[in-house]
Amino acid sequence: MILGFISLSLVFSQYYIAEICIPDHVADTMLPCRAKAKDGDEGGNRRRLLAYERRELAGGKGSVCKEGSVPIITVDGLHQIHILIFFLAVFHVIYSALTMALGRLKIRGWKQWEQETSSHNYEFSNDPSRFRLTHETSFVRAHTSFWTRIPLFFYIGCFFRQFFRSVSKSDYLTLRNGFISVHLAPGSKFDFQKYIKRSLEDDFKTVVGVSPVLWASFVVFLLLNVSGWQALFWASLIPLVIILAVGTKLQAILTKMALEISERHAVVQGIPLVQGSDKFFWFGRPQLVLHLIHFALFQNAFQVTYFFWIWYEFQLNSCFHDNLGLTIGKIGLGVGVLFLCSYITLPLYALIAQVPLRLYNP
Known about the structure:
- This protein is mainly alpha-helical.
- It has one domain (83-118, 128-353).
- Helix content is 62%, strand content 4%.
- The strands form three sheets. A two-stranded antiparallel sheet has the order 1-4. Strands 2-3 form a two-stranded antiparallel ribbon.
- Strand 2 and strand 3 form a beta hairpin.
- Helix 3 (75-108) packs antiparallel against helix 9 (192-208) and helix 7 (151-164) packs across helix 11.
- The longest helix has 34 residues, at 75-108.
- The chain is elongated, with a radius of gyration of 27 Å.
- It starts with a helix and ends in a 9-residue tail after the last helix.
């Protein structure tokens, strides 16, 4: 709905915007390409769109600006912005769909663990009447060590854990047991893997949307795309930093759950009972993590969209890609963030955040 409103606003106001004039010297400031010397035979009252090439107003109309002034943007320029907005909307949906598909693929791998919970071997090895030392359980042993007692090493360990073992079998079975103990009667048969998959699908409704705040960030980064500033390069690092921070936080939550169990009980019956809580999340808001993931995905999609839009409008070897190696590096970084978010961070969030919050109807 917001996309439609923006598109209609551009269509109805394009000629009025094109009649807004600015001084000639202002027109050559904060351009995404290096300004070229003016040629004497090109007139002087037409501003180059995005400092790439001179374009007249659509329909063959001349400029309405007086000598020494140029339009702030031409109708052709507004049309190109319209195309960019359309590109961004389409690429964001495709990007979100790929993210969800890879996330579902990761969660599908947990189906084998879910099937094991119906076997006699699982019931015997995890007999609820069987007493075990807490520090000998798989979940506590995997997440507690000497480094977990030192704050600096604690977060360094959590940072690297997300790359090598984001969700282990003991993590899944322990969180599954905690969920069933809180929400269902003892001995209930429940497909926890299917529940997590449906939780991920529900979160997709948030991830795929584009809020006014995201559109505002799109405008800000577009305006800051000034030649020499490399603003889009620095902006491409934001999604990576966010996803790495979120992944580290989620691993820290698992570790804190294990530490609480070891501090609370010396001996446990069956599988250790985790107690999920909103207090583990930033500001006590699990949804904040999802919104950060949403923002990172949108910014990542914007980087990819901008690359293909420039390629479509101005060719690959235009002044926008004066450093083609850096541009290709940004695209590669975007692909890496996509994989990291969809295959590691988002499934881990679905497993941790949904456990203490709500139960979906079958």
